[in-house]
Amino acid sequence: MFTTSRGISIVLAFAISALTLAFLSLLDEATTTILLVAGVLSFALSFILTNITLEFLIFREISKIYMVLDKIQKKDLSLVGKKRQKPSISPLKNLNSTINSYALAKDKEIETLQENATFRKEFIADISHELKTPIFAASGYIHTLLDGAVEDEAVRYKFLERAAKSLNALDNLVGDLLTLNRMENRVVKFHLETFDLKDLILEVIEQLENKAEKRDVTVRFYFDKAKKYHITADKDKIFRVCQNLISNAIKYNNEGGEVNVDLKAEKKKVHLSVKDNGKGIPEEDVKRIFERFYRVDKSRSREGGGTGLGLAIAKHILEGHNSKIKVESVLGKGSTFSFSLPEAKS
């Protein structure tokens, strides 16, 4: 009886009614009728007010708190914090709201930690795999030479060249990892200068001309010859971004495909897009292509070289210029990568 709001209310109402009657009985004017009416009224009002107070401000909120704690213990946060609670005069209701917020915050924190743990596992597995390839290749060639092949001059030079190529790939991988790590920790300095983005892209295309010819890929560059495309940025880093985007468009295109590089200047911004007509990227992979070592086609992961860090580095470079890289892709039709940078002030 004394564990419910109604039982406690009855006891308190009797106590208040008794005190009221005891006080009124001291008055000479108090008649039996007055005492009876006063006793009934004081009992009824005390019961109603006490019951409402206990039920709505205490017992019901305590019940909700127990329910929330039980759900937290069972790791079921499906209903926790769904409804946004307004400030209340009840401290228990405010406590319930605080517990809800705390539970949701902890749940998000746990999710983040789990995601980070998964990312670390994947990263360690990926980097181990990426490092093993050039190390084992170089080691295999060198051990073959040590086992006697060094006496054959033709084989010796051939294997030494292959070993050197593998070690160069390893050096590039380590260099890209260090660059990406510095960018993520924001310790890379950007050396800004004003230059014409059109001239930079022409230089990139010229550098990749042999690569395009080997795959029979045609690279077309569209721009307005009468316009200037001046931007203020880190020239070397923007060169690396453009080089990566155009190189990927050639590498992952179909044999005999096309790459369209489109440069526009409008609304005080310079827009660059690189479009290919290759296989495209599956929708579930689009959001992950900027992760370290993430490759869409695992079977062709090392075709044409590359460290698997190019897009991740490009993303951080553009973020350092207060820009974002965008990607649109249709499976079987190709992909378009684009970004924008502010025009240089004249």
Automatic annotation (TrEMBL):
UniProt keyword Cell wall biogenesis/degradation present: no
Any one Gene Ontology molecular-function term assigned to this protein's record: phosphorelay sensor kinase activity
Entry's transmembrane regions: 7-27, 33-59
Keyword Cell membrane attributed: no
CDD domains the UniProt entry points to: HATPase (cd00075), HisKA (cd00082)
Domain Histidine kinase: 126-345
Catalysed reaction, written as an equation: ATP + protein L-histidine = ADP + protein N-phospho-L-histidine
PROSITE patterns given in the database record: HIS_KIN
Keyword line: Kinase, Membrane, Phosphoprotein, Transferase, Transmembrane, Transmembrane helix, Two-component regulatory system
Gene Ontology biological process terms from the UniProt entry: cellular response to phosphate starvation
PANTHER family the record matches: PHOSPHATE REGULON SENSOR PROTEIN PHOR (PTHR45453)
Name under which the protein is recorded: histidine kinase
